[in-house]
Backbone:
């Protein structure tokens, strides 16, 4: 019966059958969403099925962005909130939300993710660099952050700082594991960094050939 109503384009009637007669709330919500009754579908997703993310996504799909933002903020889905504000060209609110997303990544120990948002979304390459460089050698994602810091310096063309950074790497190392990671990073620099002098300094570094303290 519900399928017949759907085939006739009567999604509300189909949803009523599914929810009230068959007790299938999940299918009723999906039917309303597919019939583009987005607000009604979102109510079922959030209130009856306890699926706030599905509700927010439904509202967003329907262009009900202000209502979607309210739920996304409650879920602390800051990147999605920021993307919606960017879509609406509300730059100040977008910036605030991107900042909250950065803080959330840092709180979770995802320093790479935080730096990526700072550089790509907030256009704050220097701040992103500081997070990456300060992570070596003992913070979460230390080696990945070290490699990413050199990648960032290459992108912005700050090869002088890249050379300086190579020269100060060894003095920060405290464990054999850190030295091993450093050797790998220096080998990568020596082969792949886009500026010749940085490649030379990396290859010439004593740490490039050491594996243990």
Residues:
């Amino acid at each position: 019966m519900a399928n017949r109503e759907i085939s006739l384009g009567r999604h509300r009637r189909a949803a009523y059958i599914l929810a009230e007669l068959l007790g299938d709330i999940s299918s009723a919500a999906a039917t309303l969403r597919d019939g583009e009754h987005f607000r009604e579908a979102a109510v079922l997703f959030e209130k009856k099925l306890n699926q706030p993310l599905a509700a927010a996504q439904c509202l967003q799909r329907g262009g009900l962005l202000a209502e979607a933002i309210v739920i996304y903020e409650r879920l602390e889905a800051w990147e999605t909130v920021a993307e919606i504000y960017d879509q609406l060209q509300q730059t100040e609110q977008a910036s605030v939300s991107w900042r909250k997303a950065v803080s959330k990544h840092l709180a979770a120990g995802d320093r790479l993710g935080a730096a990526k948002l700072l550089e790509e979304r907030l256009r704050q390459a220097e701040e992103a660099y500081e997070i990456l460089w300060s992570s070596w050698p003992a913070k979460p994602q230390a080696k990945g952050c070290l490699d990413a810091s050199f990648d960032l310096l290459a992108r912005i063309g700050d090869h002088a700082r890249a050379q300086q950074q190579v020269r100060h790497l060894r003095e920060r190392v405290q464990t054999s594991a850190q030295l091993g990671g450093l050797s790998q990073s220096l080998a990568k620099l020596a082969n792949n960094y886009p500026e010749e002098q940085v490649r030379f300094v990396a290859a010439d570094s004593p740490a490039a050939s050491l594996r243990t303290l």
User: Anything to note?
Assistant: The chain has a mean pLDDT of 92.
